[in-house]
Design goal:
Radius of gyration of chain A: 34 Å
Distance between the termini of chain B: 7 Å
Structural class of chain A: alpha/beta
CATH class of the largest domain in chain B: Mainly Alpha
Shape of chain A: globular
Helix content of chain B: over 70%
Number of helices of chain B: 13
Structural class of chain B: mainly alpha
Shape of chain B: globular
Order of helices and strands of chain B: HHHHHHHHHHHHH
Strand content of chain A: 15-25%
Number of domains of chain B: 2
Oligomer: heterodimer
Chain lengths: ~850, ~300
């Protein structure tokens, strides 16, 4: 799944824009040379009858076993036949046979892979089963058995071989289709009502064909080897000239004239090597890896301090510069950054994506990705310059004196090892503990970070614990060796808001107890207000502003900071009340239920009896944490999730089990904007093609009409008119989301489902996209179902709000009421957990929240006591 | 986990039955008259009819298959039509030769390929750039050409290793070792290249994972990162390639046995195919499929050990 690219991703994307994959392919010497050699060989073999050579089967008994001469350029074999003409004629047979095998494989394997990958289900199971069956047969043994049945005709045998090799084409094609099928732009195409055949042809074939062509090269080579091998051991057509049979003849005579082996051996080897090279090089070039170049790293000199750290600063960064060299191009992602932090204090590094905040801390830690290096500046830690240390010395400091807390908890734990072993291994290394002592210490740490069943967690694997638990484990790991400094890279961004609050509490208590210094990277001003003592605002690799937290929020100096603060969801103005009583009801859900068949038979109820209505021109906000079922409701309306109970009514008619044709008709009324702007647009298509595709579903619409409409749409979403000609991948996240909105609105729908449509965007972009959505609603009276995890965003954009937990509605009402005076405890907890971007206010909210929580615990304990 | 093994065993059994049936049907309906081939052109029609009845060729194909299957379950795979030796005996004497070569080649390829692949991924740069074209070459050059090359150099020119022949391990371990060096080398080259390439790609992909960076952030050094974490997470890929290569090795063994004059299954099957000796072909096909199935089962077990998600 694609996620918003970080700085390195942005740099990579810029580098690759210069040359598309096909251009690189056609210019690469690794492709051109083998292709040329192959072409020469094929031409020579095909055109050989024109060369005036002796017939390949003519045995001149007076010229047995002769060496090269003007009459016989490569000599004659033991039966007096001309080697060169036999070689070229043999090539024709060998190449033709291999071509037949490859063609059979291609014609059978590609469609099978396409259909099995796209449709799944029964067809996929059968195809997979067959493929496994065929793959388990060693090909030559199977061919021997088959040749009893079909005879020794080379071409027929090779056709049979083609069938045996189908798995080698079927598997990669199927895998490629499954990869693409997961992309959101396929879902978007389905929602637009585009038929399967069009989707296969336009979106999937383009990805599948390169894979198929590469495999063709490999299969052609393998066929050649098998065909030659069979002839070599004498199982082919007797007497026919082929490379394998020539090799066999030469081998039988190896003690007398070994040089007869040379021509056929060379012919086979060169041809096969060229084919395999073509396939290999093509595969390397098409795959996405850019080649990182080594940036001239600074030679690690002994860590002599050029100047002492000022005062009690534990970490002092000065003039730090980080550069990346990818595909031969240099780019500077951190440009002269400096800050300092003391023990017991928390410094926040704030910025949007691409600001360089993560790259700064990774540079300090020496954990930059390949191709990156610190090229200037210093990072004084406890008197020692980290940027000048070698890897071994850094390994001593990392994990012991400096702890690192990463962003995504699940992807930062090794899935193949238990939690316990991942905690214990570094502790034993740094602290020299025995295994038993280390385990006891790990257990204590888990208790300290609030994990309820530490023994079970120690024995668990990462996929068996939740995201929140995983983040606690990572925090435990970071503090395990009593560090002086902790560097935390967006430690709570991937967590639900209630879990985030708990983790922030935990961090705060650890900081106080262990007197550690913390550098916290974040984009969330609420987090800054909650936990940071000092703040540094970054943009474009540079520091814009640096101040104590209270001062920054009270009086921000730079305009950029002010814009960012204004864009924080909690600062967004509430929704202006709208008169909607008279408006007709568009969509009504009655006791909607969506149950998935879980693995091993256990059913998973995603949506459990939900009822609501949406009127024309209204925005209904749907708020919940991850796994609450909020996205599933949207997908059920769109026909992307199965409705197992209840009903969905559109203008009175039921659509819960709409047929394909009905869905296509509905697609002009109900549309969607997905969360991930990188996956919801086909990156290889031009913007115009993307926007035209759904328009052309109506048979009455001509291409000219569609183009005109595209220009209107681009205007409506405030994108430049020439955007149509550019490819989707050239645009930023916010711009892509505008394109997605344009696509959703292209046929003037009456309801648009915004599935976390702004959650993946930077704050400032988020605010402008929300404005766009509101503006479009003013103009077209379109209704929105706005799904989000953020109460503040929903308060800003929705008329009514529904709060959902575990598939059920907890509370429904006017947005203002739900946001300011929620009735239910869960809603109150949600609202209280979200950190407010103002340190003074947030301190108050925190105090109130702990009081509330304490009271809840007390109440629950009381009621338990009172039970008999 | 037990259910997983039972599932796999069930699938394996189905595979064996289906393949043995298809092979049986294919040879049953092949053109030509085996009675004629055995008795020769001069045989009388009565003798031919008697021979056909003796061989069981006058029943229908299902009856014949069932009869064969019943016998096969007790270990009796019938008798060769041409040599009159029991098929199971021929296979039992020849199978160890092929298995020895194939298994040695697989183990060697696995260890060597994994080591080379890991090294290339760890070093990158010049080492990696040198290994890539070498591995393409190693993969592309057909194994029988490598075999011919090795024979020419080591057996004919240098005379340090035997060109043909098989020495039993129990008779002479040293001689056995010398007789398998060249065949195993010829067979393994392509597999080493394939495993090295896949291991390199998998290791590089693993190294880009977030958790490797986090482990480095905990201060773990190169040895632990590569030999423990990268190896463990890249092993499934190498295992997949290895199991596919094993099937290819069994196939390649047929040609290699021809080059080195080894008395293995390959030579047996070639002779049987040329003569259309149905019981032998049937026996060989079933044996080979059983070997493949057993190896795949072992690989699956290794997977479950490596991948905690499947275990639970």
């Amino acid at each position: 799944m694609t996620t918003a690219p970080d700085t390195v991703g942005i740099v990579l994307a810029q580098g690759r824009e210069r040359r598309t994959a096909w251009q690189r392919l056609l210019r690469s010497p690794g492709m051109i040379i083998p292709a040329a050699i192959l072409a020469l060989i094929v031409l020579a073999c095909v055109l050989s009858p024109l060369f005036g050579l002796p017939s390949p089967n003519f045995a001149n008994v007076s010229a047995l076993g002769q060496g090269p001469s003007p009459a016989h350029l490569l000599g004659t074999d033991a039966s007096g036949r001309d080697v060169l003409s036999r070689l070229l004629a043999g090539g024709r047979l060998t190449l033709l046979a291999s071509l037949i095998a490859t063609a059979v494989t291609f014609v059978l394997g590609v469609p099978l892979g396409l259909l099995a990958g796209y449709y799944s289900g029964f067809l996929d199971s059968v195809a997979n089963w067959l493929s496994n069956l065929i793959q388990a047969l060693p090909s030559i043994v199977a061919l021997l058995a088959i040749s009893v049945f079909v005879g020794t005709n080379t071409l027929v045998v090779m056709a049979a071989f083609g069938v045996l090799v189908v798995p080698a084409m079927f598997r990669p094609v199927r895998a490629a289709v499954i990869d693409v099928r997961r992309e959101l732009y396929i879902d978007a195409a389905k929602v637009s009502g585009i038929g399967d055949l069009s989707i296969l042809g336009r979106h999937i074939l383009g990805v599948v064909l390169p894979v198929a062509l590469i495999q063709t090269g490999f299969i052609f080579g393998a066929s050649l080897v098998v065909q030659a091998g069979l002839d070599f051991i004498g199982v082919g057509e007797p007497g026919a000239a082929s490379w394998g049979s020539m090799l066999g003849d030469g081998f039988k005579d190896i003690y007398n004239s070994p040089y007869l082996l040379l021509p056929p051996a060379l012919a086979i080897t060169v041809t096969v090597v060229c084919l395999i090279l073509l396939g290999s090089v093509a595969r390397d070039l098409i795959s996405d890896g850019a080649t990182p170049g080594r940036v001239r790293p600074r030679t690690p000199r002994p860590a002599v301090t050029t100047r002492a750290a000022t005062g009690e600063n534990l970490l002092e960064v000065d003039g730090l510069v980080v550069e990346y060299r990818l595909d031969g191009a240099d780019s500077r992602v951190v440009d002269g950054v400096g800050f300092a932090v003391r023990r017991g204090r928390v410094l926040g590094l704030v910025g949007e994506s691409g600001s360089g905040k993560t790259q700064t801390v990774l540079g300090v830690l020496g954990l930059l990705a390949e191709g990156g290096a610190v090229t200037a500046g210093s990072a004084l830690f406890d008197g020692c310059d980290l940027t000048r240390l070698g890897r071994r010395e850094m390994n001593e400091i990392r994990g012991r004196d400096i702890g690192y807390i990463p962003q995504e908890p699940m992807s930062n734990l090794d899935p193949s090892f238990t939690i316990g072993s991942q905690l214990i291994e570094p502790m034993r290394r740094h602290l020299g503990l025995s295994r038993r002592d280390a385990r006891a210490r790990a257990r204590d740490l888990l208790v300290r970070v609030g994990i309820v069943d530490p023994d079970r967690t120690l024995a668990s694997y990462p996929h068996q614990i939740s995201g929140g638990m995983a983040q606690r484990v990572l925090i435990a790991g970071a503090v395990s060796c009593n560090p002086k400094l902790i560097i935390a890279d967006e430690p709570t961004t991937a967590l639900d808001v209630t879990v985030q609050a708990e983790v922030l509490d935990l961090l705060r208590s650890l900081i106080a107890q262990l007197d550690i210094a913390v550098v916290l990277v974040t984009h969330d001003f609420g987090v800054v207000a909650d936990i940071c003592d000092d703040v540094v605002v970054m943009r474009g690799g540079q520091i814009l502003e640096s101040a104590p937290t209270v001062q920054l929020f009270a009086a921000p100096e730079s305009a950029y900071t002010r814009t960012l603060l204004a864009a924080a969801p909690a600062h967004l103005p509430p929704r202006a009340p709208k008169a909607l009583d008279g408006a007709p009801v568009l969509l009504r859900a009655e006791n909607l239920q969506v149950t998935y068949r879980g693995r091993g038979g256990k059913p998973f109820v995603a949506v459990d009896g939900v009822s609501f209505a949406i009127r024309t021109g209204e925005t209904l906000g749907l708020v919940g944490e991850s796994g609450s079922g909020k996205s599933t409701i949207g997908r059920a309306i769109l026909g992307l999730a199965p409705v197992t109970g209840g009903d969905i009514l559109w203008s009175g008619g039921s659509i819960a089990h709409a047929s394909r044709r009905e869905r296509r008709a509905l697609s002009s009324d109900i549309q969607v904007v997905f969360q991930d702007p990188y996956s919801s647009l086909n990156p290889a298509m031009s913007v115009e093609d993307i926007l035209v595709e759904p328009l052309l579903i109506d048979p009455g619409v001509t291409r000219a009409d569609a183009r005109r409409r595209v220009r209107e749409l681009l205007d409506a979403v405030h994108l430049p008119r020439d955007a149509g000609a550019r490819r989707a991948r050239e645009f930023s996240g916010g711009q892509r989301q505008r394109i997605a909105i344009a696509r959703a609105l292209s046929r003037s729908p009456r309801l648009v489902i915004c599935d976390e449509a702004v959650s993946a965007l930077d704050l400032s972009t988020q605010a402008s996209v929300l404005d766009l959505l509101a503006e479009l609603q003013e103009r077209t009276e379109v209704a929105y179902l706005f799904v989000s995890h953020d109460l503040d965003v929903v308060r800003h954009i929705a008329d009514r709000t529904a709060v959902i937990q575990h598939g059920r509605f907890v509370e429904v009402g006017d947005s203002e009421d739900v946001a300011t005076s929620p009735r239910e405890a869960y809603t109150r907890r949600l609202a209280a957990a979200s950190p407010y971007p103002d340190p003074v206010v947030q301190a108050e909210r925190r105090a109130r929240r702990s009081a509330d929580l304490a009271r809840e615990v007390h109440d629950r304990a009381d009621s338990l006591e009172r039970q008999p | 986990m037990l259910r997983f093994i039972a599932q796999r065993l069930g699938a394996a059994l189905v595979l064996i039955v289906v393949v043995s049936f298809v092979a049986f049907v294919l040879t049953w309906f092949s053109p030509g008259d085996p009675a004629l081939a055995i008795l020769g052109q001069a045989a009388s029609p009565a003798a031919l009819a008697a021979k056909r009845a003796e061989l069981g060729l006058d029943r229908n194909v299902f009856e014949a298959y069932f009869a064969w299957a019943q016998h096969a379950l007790t270990g009796d795979l019938g008798t060769s039509w041409f040599s009159n030796r029991p098929v199971s005996e021929s296979i039992a004497t020849r199978l160890p030769v092929t298995i020895t070569i194939a298994v040695t080649a697989v183990v060697l390829s696995g260890v060597l390929g994994a080591a080379i692949g890991l090294w290339a991924a760890a070093r990158r740069g010049a080492v990696d750039n040198a290994i890539r074209p070498l591995s393409v070459l190693g993969y592309a050059i057909p194994n029988f050409i490598v075999a011919i090359l090795l024979v020419t150099i080591f057996a004919i020119d240098l005379r340090v290793l035997p060109a043909t022949g098989w020495v039993d391990f129990s008779a002479d371990p040293g001689g056995w070792f010398r007789s398998i060096i060249l065949p195993v080398a010829a067979l393994s080259l392509a597999a080493v290249a394939a495993v090295a390439q896949q291991m390199r790609n998998a290791a590089i992909a693993t190294l880009q994972q977030d958790y490797i960076r986090t482990l480095r952030g905990r201060g773990l050094g190169g040895a632990s990162i590569y030999l423990k974490h990268v190896l463990r997470n890249s092993a499934p890929v190498a295992l997949t390639v290895l199991s596919l290569q094993f099937i290819g090795l069994l196939s390649g063994a047929v040609v290699i046995e021809y080059v080195f004059g080894l008395p293995g299954i390959g030579a047996l099957s070639v002779g049987a195919a040329v003569q259309q000796d149905q019981p032998v072909i049937q026996g060989v096909v079933v044996t080979v499929v059983i070997v493949v199935v057993v190896v795949n089962l072992l690989v699956d077990l290794a997977y479950t050990w490596l991948n905690p998600k499947v275990r639970s």
